[in-house]
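Page 37, continued from 36.
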């Protein structure tokens, strides 16, 4: 069993981002949930994802190991809590230290709302637990997610033209 983090920063515990994509909800949802596509866009610019596994069912695992431009690995594991195809995903994500301590845990809710062939995606990331060691990284959470969503837009555009 993982040790629990015991600090949740006041004022930094929630992030809500909204983006509109010129694609139907089914395509945006597929690019979000298919491991091949997910590995192409998850994480900030210049990060890659050598491990990207998705077991798309309630209780299923989402495992993404990001590799930074400096070669450092950032393993993330999570569990799907709710899945409504083409409409909503709810999943946890954790970052664990090398010795198995959960440094950060977030609950992520993603909604896909289609209108006239365009999809409004809303991401709500709520930090549930964080250690002192990761508090500085939370300052970059909005920028990191924003860069991921920029990359997501590129992957959706490429998939739309395929």
């Amino acid at each position: 069993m993982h040790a629990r983090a015991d600090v949740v920063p006041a004022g930094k515990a929630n992030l809500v981002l909204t983006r509109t994509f010129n694609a139907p909800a089914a395509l945006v949802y597929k690019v979000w949930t298919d491991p091949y596509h997910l590995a192409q866009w998850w994480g900030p610019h210049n990060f890659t994802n050598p491990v990207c596994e998705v077991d798309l069912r309630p209780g299923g695992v989402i495992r993404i190991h990001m590799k930074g431009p400096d070669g450092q690995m950032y393993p993330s594991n999570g569990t799907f809590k709710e899945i409504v195809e083409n409409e909503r995903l709810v999943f946890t994500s954790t970052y664990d230290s090398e010795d198995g301590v959960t440094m950060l845990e977030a609950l992520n809710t993603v909604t896909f709302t289609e209108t006239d062939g365009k999809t409004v995606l809303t991401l709500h990331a709520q930090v549930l637990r964080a250690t002192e060691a990761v508090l500085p990284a939370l300052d970059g959470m909005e920028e990191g997610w924003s860069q991921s969503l920029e990359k997501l837009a590129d992957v959706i555009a490429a998939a739309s033209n395929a």
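The longest helix spans residues 141-161. Flag for discussion at group meeting. Residues 29 and 108 are 15 Å apart (CA to CA).
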